[in-house]
Protein: Cupin domain-containing protein
Organism: Ruegeria marina
Amino acid sequence: MTTDTTIKKVKSEFSPVGAMGQKYLVAGKRVSMRLWEAVPEGEASKPYSHRNYETVGYVIKGKARLELEGQEITLEPGDCWLVPAGAKHLYHVEKPFTAIEATSPPAEIDT
């Protein structure tokens, strides 16, 4: 068995920014990270789903509500959440929101 010795470091100030404002951080073979920084109050226009990956997140700052397949949870600093692959969901940002997410398999960059 071959050991992968690849190491990556990413400075977020140089990271690509996606279509919804997310900053793509580091990505490996099985997981990637992205940053949602100071997302303004408001909500996505309609529920959407990610067919190919699941998402786990951690709230750094702000407040949002997550609607997911008929359930609703409030997300505040220190909270973690999971969006399963294929689950329809919608975020309502109530206070400018900063969070970090990991996706598995890695989310593709959509700039």
In short: The radius of gyration is 14 Å.
